Amino acid sequence: MREQQHQPLSRLWPFKNVFYGWAIVGTSVVVTFAQVSMYGPVLSVFVTPIEQELGWARWETAMAFTIGSLGGSVGSAVVGHLLDRYGARAAVVVAGMVVTAALLGLAVMQEVWQFWGLFGLGRTAALTGVNLGLTVALGNWFIRKRGRAVSFMSIGLRAGQALVPLVIVTPLILAYSWRHAYLALALMAFLFIALPGWLIIRRRPEDYGLLPDGAQPGEAVAQAAGSPPPDPDGEVSFTLAEAKRTAAFWLLTLATMTVIFAQTAVNVHAVPSVEDRGVSQAFSGAFVFIIMGTAALSAYGWGALMDKIHVRWATAIATVFSAVAMIILMFADNILMASVFGVLFGLGTGGWTIAQTLLFANYFGRRHLGAIRGLSQLLAAPLSSFGAVLAGVIQTLTDSYTLAFLIFFGALVIVVLSLVLARPPRKPVTGSA
To answer: I want to staple 38 with a disulfide (CB 3.0 to 4.6 A). Which of 22, 81, 126, 284 is the partner?
Structure first.
């Protein structure tokens, strides 16, 4: 599109012979690493020290996570349409500033309602501006290599969740306080979300006379593994209305809402669960590192696998790992059992980190990905947002997480069944892309 070539690509990308999509990938690694303060694995390390200082119940702490998750789901329905039209750059920058402000507020909070508002706002921004934004950006810049591109973003996210608790949060909490840890996370968010987002993120390759995957003009753009036959532009692209008329959309929505319901709750409560069973609080950073380190190390393998076999089969395998891990967590009362859980759950988490981006992109194409993902996340909100607070309530009432983890195991069985039934749809003959 020659008329749009006046929009310059970032001059900070000096590799003129390398497809600019890889600049988007590299930036996504940095940005997702820095946003992890709004995710369950990092929050889990704060649960016990905040409880000890402020006396809040587990469900009260988890409520902040639920509020943020619900806000992210609702906000995604609005932001998704804007991402399709304007791209992810502004969304990532604004989200970075909001996350920074929220973390500064968390460092000085005193009341539980302040925690709910600040953490809820920060997580909403992370899910809508960063997570959904980068998902749409990578979906636009890659088709054939989408799995591998997304795997690098996933490595950034899971590496952040592994290293930030171990290297930043736990040492600062032990040496100073959890408030100092939140101040350090605020600085990290500003430097590594807002600034890289502004300098590097761009909307679509077509805006700059390029094609997805760095294909040359006239070269056929290959579709992702297992996708339906492509349209003339190289990939099937369903409109939102067309996607809603398919069984696959509803089954994928059911699968994603249910896995988030279970997975995010475990991210928040796994650390306090093993601490309640006698594992030392000093192990918390290493425990999160095992889970998320495994997720990070496995991400590229999952991405490559999902480029070769249909994404739903690889995702089902990842879900089985998480389900087996859930059984182990019910009995984990020592470092060895906690570590075995961490490896298995990390493998499942690594697979699902890739799958949440690839499932809808590979099934329905990239042209309306923001709107389709946004609606799916909105529909998923009533269930997916409440896993963490449900586990907190159960722990408060029964003084145990066993019932909660059993519920989450059943949820993961439903996820596997949904994926098996989610056959790829064919685009209606009269539909428009």
So the answer is: 126
